[in-house]
Amino acid sequence: MNIEKFENQKQQKIQELKAELTSTQKPDKQYDIYCSLFNEYQAYNYDSAFVCGSKMIQIAEELYDQSKLADSHLMVAYSCISAGLFLEAKDLLQSIDSVSLDTERKVALFSTYSKLYLDMALAIQHNPYKNYYLKQSIRYSNLIIDIKGKENPLSKLQQINIYRCQEDYVKAIEATEHFLSTVKVDDRSRTLCYGGIGTFYLLSGDTLRATSYLTEAAIGDIRNVTKESSALSDLATIAFRRGDIDHAYLYIKQGMNDAYFFNARHRKVEASDILPIIEASRFEIMQQQQSKLFIALLFVTFLSLCVLTAMYFILKQMKQLKKARRLIQKQNVDLKEVNKRLKDGNRIKDEYIGYFFSLNSAFMDEFDSFRRLVTRKLAGKQYNELLQIVKQDDSQKNRENKFVSFDSIFLKLFPDFMEHFNALFPEQEQIVLPSPVTLNTELRIFALIRLGVTDSDHIAKFLNYSVNTINTYKSKVKNRSIIPNNLFEQKIMEIESVKSDIE
Q: Which among 360, 271, 284 is positioned nearest to 325, based on CA atoms?
């Protein structure tokens, strides 16, 4: 199959849209073109898709068009899910006012939520979070079925998702095949269905049928120039289990290249988990070949006068094997480093997901207690006491509690943060805290930066300061450091979290 041909067609279509974009100044027209560009990039390259979606959001805000704003938020959220940016996608979805949406956009919102929770469950693979995410995915799928009716094509897809979440792969396969036989779909949708059936067969243990459907899905991905797909990784797994190391290596390398091109973080993790295993098997085979060649060399030495010629070829082969060994060792080192960074990022996100749920639960409990207290006071007509309760302001205490929780979680993730932070300053400028489990404002600013929150506006909102105050704090700290100001935040990002088990 001519992969380059399909790539060129994709690039030509993108260039045509970009040319069309530069020829118009009308915001509505620009929005439509960015939407078309987003659709081209959606399964091709996350970074470009995100830029197009962000432009759509900007134009929708300028036009004060709430429908376009909701659509653009949904599209950007979907691209974030494809890239493995689950928290970012959730924030975007939560920013949409579902109450004001029409039926179709509400269905689109529920569908995106359903995909988000399914992908989070597949990515985390640990309970109780996995089961919680699967239940949430099922809940949103049921909401869509209630709205659209069971016979609607979208409802049928949601029913397939429910079967998948319930691990009822037999029904999932039957439902998908019935959907393909009764609903007219485009090539991209058909490819997704083939990939789904292949995955269901693979999870059911039927690798023969899984191979057939996953091959069709991989071919469809090439034809549609889709980089965000797991079909090749699944085929690599099947080929490796069968002992077909060459094809397994070919598939997983292409899958890894696609994941890096698209910038799909969770796909990188999937590929990086199996690639070292396949590489090791290839290396073992090469070692076996080396041993056989050496035995052959000894045999030929005793039987033939061609020992010098044979030795020449054997030594040449050994040099190639050593070169391959060094290359494999380098690739393994690089892959371990990539895997470490990805797992480190996931561990930080997992910790703060738990922190978010805990904080949300505490807030709901506090709100429920307050509601019951107000109800009792109203029932007893104790209006003065009720007024006094309302006037009480515990915001400062709540904020302090929030900071205590933040400090505790951060120092758990980065127990050596203070030591590495102080190493950036001369001894007389190093910070000594009254408590080893509590950070001050300056440290919280750079703790947030280490977690990836680099926008001063977001930091200011979290710490309840103005942006100018935050920037002033940052400037004062950098000026005291022995590190150049432009390299200071880079040094902060190099501070490692607690070491993982795989290191």
A: 284
Asked whether residue 503 carries a pLDDT value surpassing 50, the answer given is: no
Query: Which CB contacts under 8 angstroms, 24+ apart, belong to 45-54?
Result: 45/227, 45/261, 45/262, 45/263, 46/79, 46/80, 46/82, 46/83, 46/228, 46/262, 46/263, 46/264, 47/263, 49/79, 50/76, 50/79, 50/80, 50/83, 53/79
Can you tell me the distance from the alpha carbon of 447 to that of 105, in angstroms, rounded to the nearest whole number? 38
* Residue whose pair of structure tokens reads 């700290």 in the numeric block: 477
Task: Mention every residue, 6+ apart, whose C-beta is less than 8 A from residue 57.
Answer: 69, 72, 73, 76
Highest-confidence segment of 302-306, 373-377, 465-469: 465-469
At 299, is the secondary structure helix, strand, or coil?
A: helix
Q: How many Cα atoms occupy the beta-carbon half-sphere of 14 within 13 Å? A: 17
Residues 6+ apart with CB under 8 A from 288: none
Share of the chain above pLDDT 90, in %: 21
Task: Look at residue 228 in the predicted model and tell me its pLDDT.
Answer: 66
Sign of CA dihedral 106, 109, 115, 118: negative
pLDDT greater at residue 328 or residue 486: 486
Q: Is this prediction's pTM over 0.90?
A: no
Q: What is the model's pLDDT at position 502?
A: 38
As given in the structure block, the two tokens for residue 424 are: 């950036």
DSSP string, 42-67: TTT-HHHHHHHHHHHHHHHHHHT-HH
Which of 210-214, 283-287, 405-409 has the least mean pLDDT? 283-287
Report whether the peptide linkage leading into residue 153 is cis, meaning its omega lies within 30 degrees of zero.
Answer: no
pLDDT: is 358 or 222 the higher one? 222
Distance (Å, whole) CA 102 – CA 503: 50
